């Protein structure tokens, strides 16, 4: 099981990779068979190819991620963070929470993103 | 599927019920067969009797919950919130994120709490 420090660094690297426009750096945090549901309620997507497309599109949309507070760990293989997605060109913000589960290799195996229609402002 | 407003009110009622010392009000938000893992990595507990014991103990420990920001919904049956657990008597704070899944009756069917040893301060 990955330790707390490893998981928190991975979530910070997710934020940093996104803001650097580096989809490959984000996707490298995930296992090849990872499943993401972003947001919860949308059809899950899986696999590095699909994730690369997803994050490339999100980055190209001009979004930046700003942590709302410290990343949380757990007593197990999960970690979570609250953040705000800022899309300056659209004068749009989205408040989100991502919860991630790691595999024994320290890769993210599942990500669930909590944000809905009324979390936008 | 419960609507976003219902889920967010339930999470707010969880906070308010906790701070009012009303374990029954919290437990009433959950389905009888709900499973909670608090924190992730601890053995899950299930059923209203076990949840009542869990929340009664937490309340009796003197903890109060303070939301860190707006509760998040989703495009489906999930909602999440970041908050700080304050235990004044122990001069202790714990930073947590709870992610909840609802059933079609609008009751919480699963709760996963993200906080670990190094989220305490």
UniProtKB/TrEMBL annotation, chains A, B:
CDD domains, alphabetized: ketosteroid_isomerase
Sorted UniProt keywords: Isomerase
Stretches assigned to the SnoaL-like domain: 12-111
Keyword Transferase: no
Cell membrane found in the keyword field: no
InterPro entries: Ketosteroid_isomerase (IPR039256), NTF2-like_dom_sf (IPR032710), SnoaL-like (IPR037401)
EC number: 5.3.3.1
Pfam family, one: SnoaL_2
Signal sequence range: none
Source superkingdom: Bacteria
Molecular-function GO terms, alphabetical: steroid Delta-isomerase activity
Top EC group: isomerase
Protein name: Steroid Delta-isomerase
Species of the source: Actinomadura adrarensis
